[in-house]
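Marked as duplicate of an earlier ticket. Keeping the data here for the record.
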Amino acid sequence: MKNIILIGCIVGSLIGFASVQEVPMVSIDRQAQANQAKEASVEMLTAAANKVTTASMSPAAPTEKQSLQLGSVEGITLYDSQQDAITKLGQPVEITTDPYNAGSETYHYERMSIVFTDGVVNFVEILPSIGSVLIDDVRVPASFEGMKKAFGEPDFETEDGIGFQRGEAVLKLFFGEAKGQLNAIHYFHIASV
């Protein structure tokens, strides 16, 4: 990236020098003028490179609400295959099939279950007893309060829970018998509803 910026600065300075009208100088020869121009270019490029380096080293840190886009939950994306899950999480503790839904298998892991339909993630279920959920590489408390703090106000509310939607991805928190009790957290694609 620095090389591209430096090349751009060099080209820009050459164009800038080419468009400057020459003023006749009696006491300075052409070699001295060339040396001065070269020194000015080097100084300008060094200053530009320092600005770019400083800017790239200290970006403004995004807040969690800005950075949580539901790209992954517990390391799993909505586009992962069964082999992707095994590569990321290892072999499941148990694999079950749904007798009523051909092509559906559930991989049970210690922290979650992943339901696959025709070999692709249908949804991920996480029980709140795990304490926290890894969302886009950020640990978020597995509670209504923790999710609201991380995502803001819910995007929708249903009779059995609340949900947060980011693009095509949805994270839904399911209520228990009491509205304040969290029973499960599901991560799924909006098209699977």
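See parent ticket for discussion. The longest strand covers residues 182-189.
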